[in-house]
Design goal:
This protein is mostly helical and 152 residues long. It has 8 helices and no strands. The protein is globular and about 55 Å long.
Length: 152
């Protein structure tokens, strides 16, 4: 982003520019402060907010909420870029629930979103990641173990 001294700087525009240009913890913190003021930002959060890295579990919930994941999933069809990005968001959400909390179970629309995602994924088996399948299984096992420990 090139700053023009003649124009006022809008904080959110600057944060969005930073979020798009950094990785790692810089991206995590930028997304945390980014406000979803328009459709471009929301779509970017869903397509690119989670980049497939280790830190996705720290940013996935913000991407889901601020990117309005549930509305995106209610669309009849999703283009490839959006579906792949949403898959990475789900990987991050599921990874968070398994490791740090604050993932799919913390997302207000988590169960509905997961159900809608599965419906989209059925028509695109070539795009669904084995990682999502593995994480769903691991999350189920974790929840079953927590349930059994609660009964003891």
């Amino acid at each position: 982003m090139i700053l023009n001294p003649e124009q006022p700087i809008h904080f959110n525009d600057l944060v969005f520019s930073i979020a798009k240009s950094v990785d790692g913890w810089g991206r995590v913190h930028a997304i945390e402060h980014l406000e979803p003021t328009d459709d471009e930002i929301k779509r970017w959060l869903l397509e690119h907010g989670c980049d497939g890295g280790v830190l996705d579990m720290y940013v996935a919930l913000n991407c889901a909420v601020k990117g309005d994941l549930i509305s995106a999933l209610k669309q009849k069809t999703l283009d490839d870029n959006l579906f792949i990005g949403i898959t990475r968001v789900f990987e991050g959400l599921l990874e968070a629930d398994i490791n740090i909390g604050g993932g799919i179970n913390a997302y207000e629309h988590g169960k509905e979103a997961l159900s809608l995602y599965v419906q989209h994924a059925k028509s695109r088996p070539d795009h669904i990641s084995d990682r999502v399948t593995d994480l769903l299984l691991a999350l189920s096992v974790k929840e079953m173990q927590e349930y059994e420990q609660g009964e003891s």
